[in-house]
Every structure is written in structure tokens, then in C-alpha cells.
Design brief:
85 residues, mainly alpha, protein heterodimerization activity, Histone-fold, Transcription initiation factor TFIID subunit 12 domain-containing protein
Length: 85
């Protein structure tokens, strides 16, 4: 079982649904891209929140608030509930 290569050159472990079934490479890429975008958005918003409170330091509370503001609502979750398995 070869591990797919990360775009930056590091190896990543393949995510298995069961012992014999793995996510397709395309799905892994989509999930990785979504996660990367989410982390980037959280960090960007957290920095803006710290700046808004006139601080030059990013604090845990900035990250927590950013995550709570950016987490998907139940409306967004329900939008994708009709995706076939």
C-alpha cells in the first residue's frame, strides 16, 4: 500500500474506510483542500479579531471565536444531506 505524496513532498498516510477500502485519491485531495482552506480562513479571521481588539498577539480566544463563527451551520450540513453514498 503506497502512501500518496503530499503536494509539498512529504508522505501522507492513506485514509481507509475499512481494512480493504480506502478513499479515492480525488476524494482525499478534496478533503485535504477543504481542511486547508478552513484552517487558512480560521487563522485569517483570528488575526483580524486580534487586530480588532487592538492586540499585537493572537490568543486562544481569537481562535475559538473564529472557529465558532466559521463552523458550518445545520443549514449548510442539510444542503449536502442528499449526496448519494
Amino acid at each position: 500500500m503506497d502512501a500518496p505524496m503530499h503536494p509539498q513532498g512529504g508522505e501522507e498516510k492513506r485514509v481507509y474506510v475499512t481494512e480493504t477500502e480506502a478513499f479515492s485519491e480525488n476524494l482525499e485531495i478534496v478533503i485535504r483542500d477543504l481542511a486547508t482552506d478552513f484552517v487558512d480562513n480560521v487563522c485569517d479571521l483570528a488575526c483580524k479579531l486580534a487586530k480588532h481588539r487592538k492586540s499585537d498577539r493572537l490568543e486562544e480566544k481569537d481562535m475559538i471565536l473564529a472557529i465558532s463563527l466559521l463552523k458550518p451551520s445545520s443549514t449548510v450540513k442539510n444542503q449536502y444531506s442528499n449526496i448519494p453514498e
